[in-house]
Amino acid sequence: MLLNLTIIDLAVVKSLDLDLEKGMSVLTGETGAGKSILLTALGLALGDRADSGYVRPECTRAEVNLEFDLSDAPDAQQWLKDNELNDEHHCLIRRIVNQDGRSKAYINNRPVTLQFLQELSEKLVEIHGQHAHLTLLNSDEQRRLLDAYAKNHNLLEQVNTCFKQWRLTNNELSSLVKTSSDQSEREELIRYQIGELQQSDFVHNSYTTLLEEHSKLANLGDILTKGQAQVDVLYENDQQSVTQLLSHSVNELTTIAQFAPELTEICTLLSDAQIQTEEAAIQLRRFLESQEADPQRLDILENQIGVIQNLSRKHHIAPDELPQLTEKLENELGSLTHCGERIETLKADTAQLLTKYHTLSKQLSEQRHQTAEKLQKQISDLIKELGMPQGEFLVDITEMDIDNPKLNGNDKIEFLITANPGLPPKPLAKVASGGELSRISLAIQVTTANDKTTPTLIFDEVDSGIGGGVAEIVGQKLRSLSFNRQVMCVTHLPQVAAQAHQHLYVEKNNKTDITSSNVRVLNDEERIDEIARMLGGVTITKNTLAHAKEMLSHSTSGNLLKGTTSGK
Question: Phi first, then psi: what are they for 456, rounded to 5°?
Answer without folding.
Answer: -125, 125
